[in-house]
């Protein structure tokens, strides 16, 4: 699933995946989605395999859902939480690399604050690497679970109007989603404060436009995808929560402009009163918790494809 033949197939980004590969993962994900009150399937597909989760950045849902996914497929998991703040990228990665190789895992799921860190490891290790978020670059399984969530509610992504709103500049979630949505022919509208919406992102694919006013972005939207303000990646003094909310917080009056059955999405963690109001977060338009559930099913499909 990677572009380079030299690295064993992992999942590094959405940009280098073609549409048919994405479709295959999304289709297989349906097999792993529980019906009604059922729990996720328990299988032995990956029995005897071990999956390392190596997280240099905070994570709740992504790390836990990868671990649940691996275990539900019968794999063992080894969880390594490393603090990246005091060590330089080169040192920490090389040290960690040696430790990991000694454990002989079958795949490494990794998150790192540096864009390109999983690609770096993939070039040096002979085992598949799954990118669970690298800096501001990509978060491929998030875009896959978002696409699955949209397709659970719509027959197709083609020609849907998807507004992605917030701190686009620092969002790997936005980048992976822009690639995926544009490959599938959606109309993508990026919106946020001008300092957080770089113009060049409009050239990442077809059908991408930029708007700076919420009303313009949400009008007639099929999907409104909100993003967390990435305070940890901002170097300038950020807007206060209340000021940000006044201009870019999603509220019921915005949803009144969107399509009547529009979906509200957010990768989490959500900040109520900054990115969206509680009325919207808890409304029937919100599929935020469906995204969390789909995170496990998508990651089962990805791990099965890589290791099964
Ligand atoms: C996202 C991330 O870490 O990129 N979270 C997640 O994986 N669910 C988004 C975020 O932290 O804002």
Description:
The protein is α/β, with parallel strands linked by helices and 308 residues long. The protein has two domains: 10-138 and 292-307, Rossmann fold; 140-287, 3-Layer(aba) Sandwich (Rossmann fold), CATH 3.40.50.1370. It is 37% helix and 15% strand. It has a five-stranded parallel sheet with strand order 7-6-5-8-9. A four-stranded parallel sheet has the order 2-1-3-4, sandwiched between helices. Strand 5 (161-165), helix 6 and strand 6 form a beta-alpha-beta unit. The longest helix is centred in the C-terminal third of the chain and has 20 residues, at 288-307. It starts with 18 loop residues before the first helix and ends with a helix. Bound molecules: N-carbamoyl-L-aspartate.
Task: Summarize this structure as a short list of keywords or feature phrases.
globular, Rossmann fold, alpha/beta, binds N-carbamoyl-L-aspartate, 4-stranded parallel beta sheet, 11 helices, single chain, 308 residues, disordered N terminus
């Amino acid at each position: 699933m990677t572009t380079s033949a030299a690295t064993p197939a992992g999942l590094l980004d959405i940009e280098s995946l073609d549409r048919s590969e994405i479709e295959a993962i999304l289709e297989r994900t349906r097999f792993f989605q529980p019906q009604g009150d059922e729990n996720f399937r328990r299988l032995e597909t990956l029995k005897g395999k071990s999956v390392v989760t190596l997280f240099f950045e905070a994570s709740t849902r992504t790390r836990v859902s990868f671990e649940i996914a691996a275990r539900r497929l019968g794999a063992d998991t080894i969880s390594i939480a490393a603090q990246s703040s005091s060590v330089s990228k080169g040192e920490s990665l090389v040290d960690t690399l040696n430790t990991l190789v000694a454990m002989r895992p079958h795949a490494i799921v990794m998150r790192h604050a540096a864009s390109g860190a999983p690609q770096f490891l993939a070039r040096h290790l002979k085992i598949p690497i799954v990118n669970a978020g690298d800096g501001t670059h990509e978060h491929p399984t998030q875009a896959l679970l978002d696409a699955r969530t949209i397709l659970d509610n719509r027959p197709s992504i083609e020609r849907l109007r998807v507004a992605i709103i917030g701190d686009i500049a620092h969002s790997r979630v936005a980048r992976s989603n822009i690639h995926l949505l544009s490959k599938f022919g959606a109309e993508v509208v990026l919106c946020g404060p001008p300092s957080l919406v770089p113009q060049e992102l409009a050239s990442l694919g077809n059908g991408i436009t930029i708007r700076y006013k919420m009303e313009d972005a949400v009008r007639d939207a099929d999907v409104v995808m909100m993003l967390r303000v990435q305070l940890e990646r901002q170097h300038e003094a950020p807007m206060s929560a209340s000021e940000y909310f006044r201009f870019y917080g999603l509220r019921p009056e915005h949803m009144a402009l969107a399509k009547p059955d529009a979906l509200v999405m957010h990768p989490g963690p959500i900040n109520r009163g900054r990115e969206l109001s509680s009325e919207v977060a808890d409304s029937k338009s919100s599929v935020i918790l469906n995204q969390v559930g789909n995170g496990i099913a998508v990651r089962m499909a990805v791990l099965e494809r890589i290791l099964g």
